Every structure is written in C-alpha cells, then in structure tokens.
C-alpha cells in the first residue's frame, strides 16, 4: 500500500485543482482542497491511480465514494486523470464485425423500448427541476451570448423550424418528440399538421395532456410508437429527429435513414440533430466513462463519428444539404442543466432517490466537460429526399426545397 500511496500523492500533485483524499488507513493531498474525496474502501485507489474515472463514478453511485466540491472543479480533475481519450487506433476487421453484431443484438424493438423507459421515465418531476419550462432535453442554441437556457432552447426550436422551411399546412413528423417542445412550437408558430412519436410512456402522457390544454387536438397527434412501425402510405413534407438517433445503433443507421426517406415526400427535408463521437475511432468516452453512462444513464446508446453518420445517410438514399456543429452549445447547455440540478438536490432526492441523483450529477457535469474538450460532439444534419425534378423554377436543379444557400436560416 505504501507504494500505491506514493503513486496517489504523485497523481494528486499534478492535478489542476487542489484535492484531498481519504481512505481507511490513509490520506493524501492538501488540507485546503477544492475537491475532497472520501473512499470507504481502499480497493478503489487502484482505479484512481489508473485514471479509471468510470469505476470511481460507479463507486460514487454505490455510496462507496463521497465527493465534496464544485462540479466544475471536480470535472477539471477528472479530465486530467483521463487524459485525451479521443483518438485511438483503427479497429481491426474482427473488432468492427463484433461491434456490428453486438449492435444488432442490442437494438431490437422490445429492448429499445425498455432502454428508453429506463432513461426517460425516471420521473417527470425530476427532469422539470433542471430542464427549461418546455422540457427540451437536447442541445440549446445560444444565438446570442446573453441568452438564458429557456431563451436558447426556444432559439433552437426556431432554428430547426427555419432550416426545415416549415410552412402552413405541411405534414410534419417529429421522431423522438420528447416532452413536445418542437412538436408544439412547430404547430403553434408554423401552422403545420404535426405528429410526434416516442417510446416513453411518461412523455406520451405529458404531451397528450398539453395538446388538449393548448386546444391543438385535431392538429397535433402524439403516438407511443417505434419509428420502424410508422406507416408509409401518407409521407410527410418535413421530418425532424432530435436527440434520438443516438439510440438507433450503428448497425441500424442505414436502415434508419432508409425508413426516413420512405416517410418523406420527394423533395422533402429532414433534420437529424444528434450527438456524435469526437474522434473517428472512439465509439464511446474513455476512462470507463462510456461504460458508466451505458450502465446508469443511456443503456443501448451508441455514438458514431459524423463522417460515418453522413455515409449512412447517403447510403439510405438521402442527400446531405447542410451540416452545423453545435458542440460548444451543448457544453453550455449541459452546464446549465448541471447547475439546475445542483440547485435542487434535496428536491431531486425527494422525487427519485440518492442513487439516481448521484448518477445524474456525474453524468451532466461529465458530459459538459466532454463536450467542452471535444471528446464528443453534436451535429445538425439537414438532408432531403431528392425528387428527381431538375426544372422547378427558381430552385432549378435543387431536387428539393433547399434554396442553395443558408441566408433563409438566419435572417
């Protein structure tokens, strides 16, 4: 243990924040620390020495590690312990084959439904403590630096609607509609006939209530349905998928985009907004952080680099029109969520439990840190189903509703 204690002291000396560490029979660090860690079992010292942040997060959720300190200070320490997990070597053909096989097994309909329920049906009251009033659970868009979270979420909804060129009377589908933020915004501000789908029973019930309260019955529909089960006999003019395709699985990505193409009218537009891997070959966060998120937060979640997503989109028969990286926006969004949860810890424990609160404290702050450092990213990919018609007036050659430039998105 003495050799390990020396290694721990050396680790703590090189950290960007002052850390105090205690464990049964020992202590290290400085008394005037920014972050205090108390290990109730010395077996976790090895994980700390190796930079296995995921294992330490597991210990925290299980109550075998206690943390005292600001979450930003804690994440600065965690980032230094992990190092840079983005770039790894190219996987072998065997590793790629095995990964695709596992992805196929993980993403059958029944299992996907259970995985979505595990995350999104934790407690509506819990999410309401730290999300904006519309409960938009995806990356906000800070069009100006002084925006609040609520303003930035509304700016994101507007940004997506503008990119999709929504208009009165259009048929609009929101895949993975969440608590209805985009679905209702599009109906109220752009007069579309909107349908939303989700696998979360809580979200379905919540949005169904809002539809009635807002007097939108007959104009907006919310269905408890898997995207693979959507009927294709009445295609949509516009489709949005926001914060959903992370649950699709890499083995299903081409089939996912093929389904979207069949659900779109020729010339129709689709917005795919979702998290991507920061590096080309890292399918999850390093230091065991990805395993922690898989276990406690998003079972079945899989990330691909934007280059692989774009390839799958093209193989699915869609044309990529515009790509926008919102990575810094998601870092700021997640810190806002983290701050919101930190301000309501007692209430969060009252509506869930200590284990859930501990897991989400690390998840929100850890993801904020990971987006800041580029370990993961967020892209909005605007695409179309080409119509084959090259003689459409002012849009001659476009084969879609995209008007050749971005001016319409921002004015």
Automatic annotation (TrEMBL):
Keyword match Manganese: no
Entry superkingdom: Bacteria
UniProt keyword annotation of Methyltransferase present: yes
Active site, renumbered: 367
Single GO MF annotation: methyltransferase activity
SUPFAM superfamilies: S-adenosyl-L-methionine-dependent methyltransferases
One GO BP annotation of this record: methylation
InterPro entries: CFA/CMAS, CMAS, SAM-dependent_MTases_sf
Keywords, sorted A to Z: Lipid metabolism, Methyltransferase, S-adenosyl-L-methionine, Transferase
Family per similarity comment: Belongs to the CFA/CMAS family.
Protein name as annotated: SAM-dependent methyltransferase
Protein source organism: Caldimonas caldifontis
